[in-house]
Amino acid sequence: MPLVVQKYGGSSLADADSIKRVARRIVDTRKAGNQVCVVVSAMGDTTDELLDLADAVSPAPPERELDMLLTAGERMSMALVSMAIANLGDSARSFTGSQAGVITDDVHGKARIIDVTPGRITEALGAGHIVIVAGFQGVSQNTKEITTLGRGGSDTTAVALAAALNADVCEIYTDVDGIFTADPRIVPTARKVDRIANEEMQEMAASGAKVLMLRCVEYARRFNLPIHVRSSFSHREGTWVYQPQGEDDDVEAPIIAGVAHDRSEAKITVVGVDDSPGQAASIFKAIAEGGINIDMIVQNVSAVSTGKTDVSFTLPKTDGQRGVQVLQAIKDQLGFESLQYDDQIGKLSLVGSGMRSNPGVSATLFQALADNGINIEMISTSEIRVSVVTKDDQLDDAVRAVHTAFGLDSSDGEAVVYGGTGR
Amino acid sequence: MPLVVQKYGGSSLADADSIKRVARRIVDTRKAGNQVCVVVSAMGDTTDELLDLADAVSPAPPERELDMLLTAGERMSMALVSMAIANLGDSARSFTGSQAGVITDDVHGKARIIDVTPGRITEALGAGHIVIVAGFQGVSQNTKEITTLGRGGSDTTAVALAAALNADVCEIYTDVDGIFTADPRIVPTARKVDRIANEEMQEMAASGAKVLMLRCVEYARRFNLPIHVRSSFSHREGTWVYQPQGEDDDVEAPIIAGVAHDRSEAKITVVGVDDSPGQAASIFKAIAEGGINIDMIVQNVSAVSTGKTDVSFTLPKTDGQRGVQVLQAIKDQLGFESLQYDDQIGKLSLVGSGMRSNPGVSATLFQALADNGINIEMISTSEIRVSVVTKDDQLDDAVRAVHTAFGLDSSDGEAVVYGGTGR
């Protein structure tokens, strides 16, 4: 019997009626002849409400206790979904992350899954039950403490369970129809894509596409697991995130998968750095020691007259001020002239595995931006991605221009709803 | 270092401010030189809200899933109390019932504690932490499923943990000042008692006094553990529930501990039963097989002329209709004449270990009722208790009359607030 793992996010579980609707879909999947293991997020606003409560008793709650508190959210939704399934005459068993064997490291708030030992899940599935598992949570290997997985945690739980159970597919249910060629709120002519290679999805997620979280895609890619991203509000096919098998599998794929954008970053430029070995290392060692993740780095060749150069990099806006402080603290040691900080930027990324065999993609991209009067502040590329940083207020125009230039606009321009997932 | 176990009910944890107040009290207890282990109920109305959610998705939710849902309530409150303690600069660790080693049988919804293995609690206390434990919940020995303990469950968790940890005292915090000689909402002159023997408390609880649940008192008595019932809203001493040591310990205790009352029962009279061996056995075998707990039983001698008798018994109102159905189903087999059902009754119980050595208590009780024109429908006695059933609308008068007749009225008649505990 095929085994299907499904994941439902908070927006699909907003209230009792939503839960009943999801239960009906789960029971239908079971009746169609599948074993079904379901991963659920917390209902609608539950997590925010719990965070508000925590904030009301303590401005800086201990992370262990915060994890204990937040995991109550999925516990509630998994029990309610199980009850709703029982009410339809089928039989469901709910399991916490710990009971489901989701073993993590011991970093509270953003634990990483290091093993999945789903003995109780396998047993319950074998006994004919539908299984409901709390997403976003696990138990730490060494300390046996309850942990949470951080952003995208429930998607990751679903993929990790699907891999451990050797499932046939992992269905990620959300409030949009699938993966789009661009955010339809910015590009009304964006199209849902039927399939996307997981390496492309990985670049899209890393570049700001919010429907699937990066770590979940990485996990699925590592275990060669197909993901079907689809809407819990319709029965339409969504987007399949697949693993190409051999070189020929991609032949008919479009050159470009989509245009992602990201407004979450800021830019720091270190002006007047000596162009001598070790300067960049010193800068980014200091940043890393501050616990700050950086994204793009650009360094130009130095002006011959001065022997000085400028180094620019992007980092999360939320870490922006700290990044500046870290560098100011070592200004004398590094001997740079000044720092420039800009959080009014946006990043556009063009992603497609066809870039490998199609030279000229970058040129087309830059021309499209130039034709629309959009200035490029930074450029960064990978094998299947080109990213540019623009002024924040030019980003939407940039995304539309590039989407059109690469022939991604749909002919009918149907209105679609596009949203982000929670966790 | 002395070890104190404290239990806080939902009314003491109604909102963020209440939680901060409770945290302050816990930290003060720790600073006074005690190890502190705290058991918490769910916040205020949380349990009712969760039950409403369950009801909205299923009219008859599976008990396993209901337990999974409800245990989220204590999980939230224990994490929040821990955070509030951390915010006061002290260190707290929260543990679920399962983590705290509360091992139960596998009856969902009303599990009984069969063992407590508090290894993680002892370890955390030894490391200098304050420990917060979720009340009302455990894990089943055989099936490793999450269970709840039913009514009075959090009090029982506290007493069981106190026994297993060999604590010096178990403090039960509630929203009243302690145990009263009668319900002050009915008897404004009722007094708080400073101490009460646990056998008396047991009879009071079994007779309808709601501040402490019967099973918690039974547990404390079995393990010879002192309980201090007190208000979380003041710093006054409450009521000590103690274990008399030897016969002399009770010498100075008052003859009467208090007057309890109970409106939760109904009465069934089986009219015209053959006065032959085995008739009563047949009646109560059928009731027991229906899963119905009965309280008082009264059978009069039969009229010589007919050889028939009447058998009356009381049972929870909630089981009343089912009790009638069970007996109607075996009417032909038993050969009784008819059934009378009355749910407009109340029960008054006078409790005191001094009754043993003071004959005449019953006579004084019956005289007080007679003087006030109150008719007695049933009488039942134990070694330290006399209970009478009256009409529901005469019960309050009866309680006041008896309270006065036994000299229990306070001289100052101070206004007190008296309420029930949740779970």
From TrEMBL, chains A, B:
Keyword Repeat: no
Domain ACT: from-to ranges: 268-344, 350-423
Pathway(s) served: Amino-acid biosynthesis; L-lysine biosynthesis via DAP pathway; (S)-tetrahydrodipicolinate from L-aspartate: step 1/4; Amino-acid biosynthesis; L-threonine biosynthesis; L-threonine from L-aspartate: step 1/5; Amino-acid biosynthesis; L-methionine biosynthesis via de novo pathway; L-homoserine from L-aspartate: step 1/3
Top-rank EC class of the record's enzyme: transferase
GO CC annotation, single: cytosol
Residues the entry annotates as binding substrate: 47, 74
Molecular function GO terms recorded: aspartate kinase activity; ATP binding
One of the Pfam families matching this protein, by short name: ACT_9
Job of this protein: Catalyzes the phosphorylation of the beta-carboxyl group of aspartic acid with ATP to yield 4-phospho-L-aspartate, which is involved in the branched biosynthetic pathway leading to the biosynthesis of amino acids lysine, threonine, isoleucine and methionine.
Official protein name in the record: Aspartokinase
